[in-house]
Every structure is written in C-alpha cells, then in structure tokens.
C-alpha cells in the first residue's frame, strides 16, 4: 500500500498502517508530536520499590499508628515452596506470541526441542534495535525498515537517538520511511505492552539491551549477526526477507533463554527509639528489582583490597568468597564473562544457575552449578574491609555496603530467542564460529573437496 510522504518530523494520519492498533493507547510518541512520558517512581533505573521494616531478634513487635505490625515475612524464617528445576516459564511473549501447544508434553514441561512459536493474532508492531555508533549498520537498518513498512505494512518502533541519526536525516530517499517510524526513549517511554516482535541488528550486546527494555514478558527476538560476537545472533542478514517472512507465518523453533530475577535490598535509614522500655532498631529497606539475561557480577570495584562476600543458598551459608569477585550467570551467560573466568559452557535449555569466582584467593574454590529453583543471596562478610560493587549485564553498576544483600533466583520471564535452524544446531554452530573450533579440519575438508572436483574435471 503506498503511503503519502509527510514533512520531516511529521506523521500524517493517512501514513499510518491500515491495520488497527491493538495495543493500549499509552505508547511512545510519534515523530510528529506527542507528550513526554513522565518517569515512573522517580528514577528509571529503580524499577520496583518495596519498603520494609525490621526489628531485632527477640524484641517485641513495633506497632505503627494504624495498629498494624511492622513485621514482614523476611523477619522470621519461612520455608519457601519451590522446585529445583526452576519456575515454569511464561509461555506468552508480548501481546500476541506464545508457544505452540504440545499435547505430548509431560507434567506441563515441554521438551525443549518441541518448542515452536505461534501467533494468537497477526503481528503488527515490530521493534528494531540497531547497534549505535556503527556506520556499517546504517544501510541494513534502512533496508529492513523499508521492507517492514512498505512490503509488510508493519508499525516499526526504533529508539529516538537512532531515528535522529545524522546519516538518516540527510538521506532524502529514506525520509518518507523515517517519518513513519515510532520513536521511544529508554527510561521514559513504556513499550512493554505494544511490541509483538523484536529484530536486533548487531552483536550479542543488542540482544542484551533488548532484554533490558522488558522487565516482564519479552516478545520473540530475532537476532541478525552484524557485530563482533555471534553467540546469540544465529541469522545472516543476506536472507532477511525470507527469514522474517517465515517468522511472521509462525511455527518457528525458539530457545527459551532463562533470565535471573535479582533483588537488591539496601538499608537506607537507621532509627533508634529509646523512649520505650526496650530499644528498637527499625530499618527501612529499599528493594530494586532487575531481570538479567547474562550475569550478575559482584566485584571489589576501585578498592585495592580483595572483596570478601558471603554466599547463601536457600538461606544457608555455603562459603565466603575472597578474591576479585563472583559471577552468578545463566546458561546463556556461560559463554560470556563466566567462560573467561574458567567456567563451563552450558546449553541455554539446561535449568541451572552458575556461580563462578573471579581470581579466588582460595584456589580450591571452583565454579559450581546449582539448580535453577534455588535462591542465592550475596552479602558483604562482617570482616570485609571494603565495600563491593554489583552490575547487571554490565549495566546499572552500584555500590553494596554492609547491611545490603543481593537475592538471585531464576525468573519466570525468559527471552524467547528465535532459532535459525534448531536449538541444538544453532548453539553448537555459534560455538564453532566464535571459538574457531576445528578450523584446520574444515579447511582440510574444503581442500579435499576442491582437489576431488579438479580431478574429475
């Protein structure tokens, strides 16, 4: 369907797709106009707030003026109901995608090899993530946006800084497409309820960034290998039209890449009330929650001292980690920082959490793998001489002090990564390509084939 052009920075009503918009009215502004979305909760990095109060063990409850107790579930031991294989992952991804039902599944757990993508309704809104500051991706970005808008009649969402790129602004031929793009800004605009499919152009970092934009259900992700690393990007851009058309038709193989649900509990206020007969220590705690695809890294930061943190497993102290830090990663993150630190590489469909020390002081502490359903907790050791720092997929780095804790478990919101072939072939092929496995043997085989063809001729 031909679309009329509009002045730069403006989008006419007739330029919108003929398909009805099926997402809520709250959406990122168009390039023409729109109101700036206000930050929710003050700081966009703090995704979820929770205020708690505690009292010292053995003391009486402290009643607030309303008469309710200030005790919480965390102030007393409580048996946590869970399964070691981790939570059953959500099977609906975004507003329209889900896993194709499999009647042969056992105990409501599907065989990973049988996981197929299907659509409840035809997809309409596509988010295109492009690696920033890479001029080589400008042309692929324009190609796929033109294909989605003109040929597939899709509504395309991009970051505002991508749409405002000087190279795109100077391209008059791309102007009509650029004016029809919907833009958003990270931390200001909520796109979690209106995206049907994510297309990533770049390396593994683009998929990690796309995951960070969705702290709940994640739409299916189709990643094209146009960057330095290719562990998470199985598709080649040369055949993007055919591959994208197949995904729109549905019934594509997907890998559910588990994420970590991380809760950072920080002690921000300490009040001492000695008016009563017994002194009460009331702690106001702030909880910040994150969804992490690769790893949580706790390190010593700028300090010259070794970090000293305690590691708990389901409330029990397992060991104290003294060294440069510790990595808690998903199977997807096992081929990233964890592999560089000496950990094994684990297939994404293995339900597990990896704990890998970084240059440990005790050489007997080796990388370990625990079931996906357990809860890990990391705190500073009482005798630690300095604070620690924590980062989540290399982002949102912050300091951890005495009294703070980090709680980590497997999230029920995985990242549905669309496979090019299947989940086994794609993973081993990515390892062979990125780690240069059997390069010499492959070259010898190609040489043998070439020699045999020459002999026949």
TrEMBL record:
Domain of life: Eukaryota
Annotated Polar residues bias: 66-75
UniProt feature, compositional bias: Basic and acidic residues: 40-64
Enzyme's top EC category: transferase
Protein keywords: Kinase, NAD, NADP, Transferase
GO biological process: NAD+ metabolic process; NADP+ biosynthetic process
MF-aspect GO terms: NAD+ kinase activity
Record region (Disordered): 1-88
EC number(s) stated in the UniProt entry for this protein: 2.7.1.23
Amino acid composition bias (Basic residues), ranges on this chain: 26-39
Signal sequence annotation: none
Annotated PANTHER family: NAD KINASE (PTHR20275), NAD(+) KINASE (PTHR20275:SF29)
Family label: Belongs to the NAD kinase family.
Listed HAMAP family: NAD_kinase
Protein's name according to its UniProt entry: NAD(+) kinase
């Amino acid at each position: 369907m031909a679309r009329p052009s509009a002045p730069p920075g403006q989008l006419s009503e007739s330029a919108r797709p003929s398909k009805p918009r099926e997402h809520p009215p709250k959406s990122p502004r168009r390039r023409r106009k729109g109101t700036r979305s206000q930050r929710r909760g003050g700081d966009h990095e703090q995704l979820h707030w929770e205020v708690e109060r505690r009292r010292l063990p053995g003391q009486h409850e402290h009643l607030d003026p309303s008469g309710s107790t200030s005790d919480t579930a965390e102030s007393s031991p409580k048996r946590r109901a869970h399964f070691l294989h981790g939570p059953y992952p959500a099977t609906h991804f975004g507003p329209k995608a889900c896993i194709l039902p499999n009647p042969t599944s056992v105990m409501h757990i599907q065989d990973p090899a049988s996981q197929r993508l299907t659509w409840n309704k035809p997809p309409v809104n596509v988010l295109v993530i492009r690696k920033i500051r890479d001029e080589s991706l400008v042309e692929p970005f324009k190609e796929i946006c033109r294909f989605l808008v003109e040929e597939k009649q899709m509504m395309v969402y991009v970051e505002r800084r991508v749409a405002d790129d000087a190279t795109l602004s100077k391209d008059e031929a791309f102007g009509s497409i650029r004016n029809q793009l919907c833009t958003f800004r990270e931390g200001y605009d909520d796109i979690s309820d209106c995206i049907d499919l994510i297309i990533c152009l770049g390396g593994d970092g683009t998929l990690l960034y796309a995951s960070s934009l969705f702290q709940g259900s994640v739409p299916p992700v189709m990643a094209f290998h146009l960057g330095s690393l290719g562990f998470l990007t199985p598709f080649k851009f040369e055949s993007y039209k055919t591959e994208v058309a197949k995904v729109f038709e549905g019934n594509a193989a997907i890998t559910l890449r588990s994420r970590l649900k991380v809760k950072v509990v920080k002690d921000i206020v300490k009040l001492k009330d000695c008016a009563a007969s017994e002194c009460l220590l009331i702690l106001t705690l702030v909880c910040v929650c994150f969804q992490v695809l690769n790893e949580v890294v706790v390190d010593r930061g700028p300090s010259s001292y070794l970090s000293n943190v305690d590691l708990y497993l389901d409330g029990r102290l397992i060991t104290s980690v003294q060294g440069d830090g510790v990595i808690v990663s998903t199977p997807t993150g096992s081929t990233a920082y964890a592999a560089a630190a000496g950990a094994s590489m684990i297939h994404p469909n293995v339900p597990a959490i990896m704990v890998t020390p970084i240059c440990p002081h005790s050489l007997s502490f080796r990388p370990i793998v625990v079931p996906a359903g357990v809860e890990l907790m990391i705190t500073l050791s009482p005798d630690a001489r300095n604070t620690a720092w924590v980062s989540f997929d290399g982002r949102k780095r912050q300091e951890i002090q005495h009294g703070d804790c980090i709680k980590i478990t497997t999230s029920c919101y995985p990242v549905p990564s669309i496979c090019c072939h299947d989940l086994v072939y794609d993973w081993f092929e990515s390892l062979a390509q990125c780690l240069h496995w059997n390069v010499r043997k492959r070259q010898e085989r190609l040489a043998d084939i070439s020699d045999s063809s020459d002999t026949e001729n």
